[in-house]
TrEMBL record:
Its cofactor is Cu cation. It comes from Paenibacillus lycopersici. Binds a copper A center. It is a multi-pass membrane protein. One of its GO terms (biological process) is ATP synthesis coupled electron transport. It comes from the Bacteria. Residues 117-230 form the Cytochrome oxidase subunit II copper A binding domain. The gene is coxB. This is Cytochrome c oxidase subunit 2. Subunits I and II form the functional core of the enzyme complex. Electrons originating in cytochrome c are transferred via heme a and Cu(A) to the binuclear center formed by heme a3 and Cu(B). GO terms for cellular component: plasma membrane. Its EC number is 7.1.1.9. Belongs to the cytochrome c oxidase subunit 2 family. It is an enzyme of class 7 (translocase). Residues 16-113 form the Cytochrome oxidase subunit II transmembrane region profile domain.
Length: 338
């Protein structure tokens, strides 16, 4: 009976492994494939070691067990140079076999593509508990949803605005720590085909660490160019004057819509995002418990951010239901065509 929850948990874990949008076991690009190759090499060697050690241990336990009536003390051995050399050299050789390709990959994958004109450069800044994505060469800044072109090198520079986080897209690449103290880490990755992939924070960073998700939307190159243009196009303010006033006073004092530069998530195109706050899934993706329309999720978020994401800097703003409805409706309408 006690095994049941454990088994159920394992089945859940394994079913998550089968999802191509978040599994390291189903690589969706060359970097993830290389990392998966390293995992396979390491696991193969570890399995062989475990099998050999268990086989020897099992053999010794059975072959040299105490037999009934046998009271004699076995031969006492204190050291055997030949054996000791063997069991020191074998692990060293195995570690070298694992180490050389691993070190090669680690340095290879940290290659800095920022000078490459064909690479898309993205500056990732981690915040408690959201992700900021800046495209310095394109003059675009967005949050929580990384849009990238397929088959293109994405060159990432990662830093943090507060504590230690780790940038991780399981099916595309990972992980890269974002360190406090001005340290910038670099990595690159590439997505083989279009699709939506899940990104996560992989370093314990506070009470909402597990909710610090983001999405990666891989689109074809023409769509990516259209997205960049749409991100920079002007946006009409809300028609309702009260909503426009509240938006300016309460929302745009921290957020920006379109123009890059605000310290908090850019709301441009948020009506077309997969999630609100990275965690309230907008589409009717049934595997998540908190699905709803963009507008419903925006309302849920604005009404009580702390309830959705404990510890978030987004305050609960004193708004009437009508004002929340108006803002949610306006923001849900900020959809980009690309
Ligand atoms: Cu950020 Cu965990």
């Amino acid at each position: 009976k006690r095994l049941m929850p454990l088994l159920a948990g394992m089945v859940l874990l394994l079913s998550a492994c089968g999802r191509a949008d978040l599994s390291t076991l189903k690589p969706q690009g060359p970097v993830a494939e290389e990392q998966f190759g390293l995992m396979k090499l390491t696991i193969t060697i570890m399995v062989i070691v475990v099998l050999v050690v268990f086989a020897i241990a099992g053999y010794v336990i059975i072959r040299y067990r105490r037999r009934p009536g046998d009271k004699s003390i076995p031969v006492q051995v204190e050291g055997n140079h030949k054996l000791e050399i063997i069991w020191t050299v074998i692990p060293i050789v195995l570690l070298i076999i694992i180490g050389i390709p691993t070190v090669n990959s680690v340095f290879g994958l940290a290659k800095d593509y920022t000078k490459d004109p064909n690479a898309v450069q993205i500056n990732v800044t981690a915040h408690q508990y959201w992700w900021e994505f800046e495209y310095p060469k394109l003059g675009v800044k967005t949050a929580q949803e990384l849009v990238i072109p397929e088959g293109t090198i994405i060159s990432v520079e990662g830093k943090t605005a507060d504590v230690l986080h780790s940038f991780w897209i399981p099916s595309l690449a990972g992980k890269m720590d974002t360190n406090p103290g001005g340290n910038v880490n670099t990595m690159y990755f590439k997505a083989d085909h279009t699709g939506v992939f899940l990104g996560k924070c992989a370093e314990l960073c506070g009470p909402s660490h597990s909710l610090m998700d983001f999405k990666v939307k891989v689109v074809d190159k023409a769509s990516f160019d259209r997205w960049v243009a749409a991100m920079k196009a002007p946006v009409a303010p809300p028609q309702d004057q009260e909503v426009a006033d509240v938006l300016n006073k309460q929302c745009l004092s921290c957020h920006a819509i379109g123009a890059s530069g605000a310290a908090f998530p850019n709301l441009m195109g948020i009506g077309g995002h997969q999630t609100i706050a990275g965690i309230l899934v907008n589409t009717d993706q049934a595997q998540y418990a908190n699905e709803g329309t963009v507008e419903e999720n925006l309302k849920k978020w604005i009404e009580d951010p702390q309830k959705v994401k404990p510890g978030t800097l987004m305050p609960k703003v004193d708004l009437t239901d009508k004002q929340i409805d108006g803002i949610a409706k306006y923001l849900a309408g900020l959809k980009l065509d690309y």
